[in-house]
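ok here's the first one, seq then struct tokens
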Amino acid sequence: MTLANPGPGPKPSRPLWHFILPGLFVGALFVSLWMRRPVQYGQLMLNGETMGTQWNATLLVPLGEVRSKPYQKIIQDVLDDVNHKMSTWNSRSELSLFNESQSTSPQPMSRETLIVLEAAKSVHTQSSGAFDVTVGPLVRAWGFGIGESEEPPSDEEIALMLSQIGSDHLSLDLEAKTATKQKAALKVDLSAIAKGFAVDQTHSVLIEEGLTDFMIEVGGEVKTMGVNAKGQTWAIGIEQPDAPKNVLSAAIAIENMAVATSGDYRNYKEKDGKRISHTIDPRTGKPITHRLASVTVIAESAMMADAWATALNVLGPTEGMDLANSLSMPIMMIVRNEEGKFEFNENKHFKPYGVKLNQ
């Protein structure tokens, strides 16, 4: 891929990386300027809010553009557009209106939302149903999300909800730009894939703006381009499960790639001394119970890394690893053993990217 020149002046060499960003969600950043080579480039660190979470970006830009080009607005506009189309929290979003409709006829849908829905259906098929964007009613029934329930559902209630969900009941026509639900009550939640798509969209826009070195992160989904301010490959930290935020268990070095992590260690409930994960297996209608604490996926697309991290988290340490290997997908799993300690399991596709820490 031929990239535009970001401005005059020499660019740094690319020695081995060693600068580690603090966690997959990076934390709240502040705007600052960092001289890269004498009066040539500046490092711009930006952040904002979108999709109920934080976004962060680190951009290496020609000094003349640090103040003259509105990068904050450029990024926010991209993210606001995705949020306006795909948010389930915004009652007037394109997706919310689709969910509210009881029609089983084709309904107009933007190209961007259709792309995400098509990707979601693809992961659904390849994961044998482990990833399903229509699983929302079960998530809420188990006490998570909008309209959450206080008590867990009965087996009869689970069976009824399972009969009413399923990505197979959603059909798409990208040419006609329509989506059709075959069951009127079907609702779609893209929270496990839309943030990754937003990262990809922002990544593309920043390239169009002429940038060649940057990192963008939305709610933990990360994508990089080129190198950091020290001329080194971007390094992204992976959180240690069950530890305070920003305590790292590993780090990966990625260039022009995306990474996403999914786990059960932040969002869960306890009932009668038992841990109830927020991750619901769409095949059973019940929370996952295996010992997989987190799974990290590396991919060219943040959207696909986002979706696959959730799918593999549902599948668990054995079934998930087998599927990832069959797809040549770079992943690392952190698994709780019987003593409650963590074991790292990375496949051969992941090894070129990773360096373990704090094992």
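and now the second one, same deal
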Amino acid sequence: MYSLNRCVVFAVSCAIAAVLAQPVRAAFVMSLQQSGSDVVMTGSGTIDTTDLSYFHWTSGNPDIVPEQGIAMLSPAFGLVDVYTGASGITAFGTGGFVTAGTSLGSSVGIYPGIVYVPMGYVSGDALAGTETFGNATLASLGVTLGTYTDRWGSGVHADSFVLEIGSTAAPEPAGALVLAVPLAALGLLARRRRPLV
């Protein structure tokens, strides 16, 4: 019985180590939420540009075009570098062009197949921004509730841009479910052990 317990503990330890050793994938997450009589778009995270292709630079504006899959956090006329190679988001509603009233922070956004980052951006640097669409609702902006994801790259350079519209459940951390089984097994082993008398 003792050797079986040791084998189970060893197996559980190996499973936990394997889950913890998995590389963490960076992501930029943008959220579009109702806030009183306004809609607020916030974004934060990092972007790995290694497997994207630099196209050119341009200026960005704080706007969205749901029917065309465009979402941009940017001070008005903020300079951005344009990278191609992303895929996934082509539209997130039926609404047309809408400009935000206020915007602060990093210039970052998406367009089908394109990722915008601040001019001179260093891959992996932290990005954050917010903008407000005054006297608006998610319905008036013509967005469809849900989670939309652009992906690019492979291996350690695989990355994503996630757009969350409306209330969304927080995703479980990677590996949480995989860890639950080994931890439960350890708990059962500890419970089955009888104290020495």
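notes on #2: Residues 11-24, 168-190 have pLDDT under 50 and may be disordered. Residues 59 and 79 are 4 Å apart (CA to CA).
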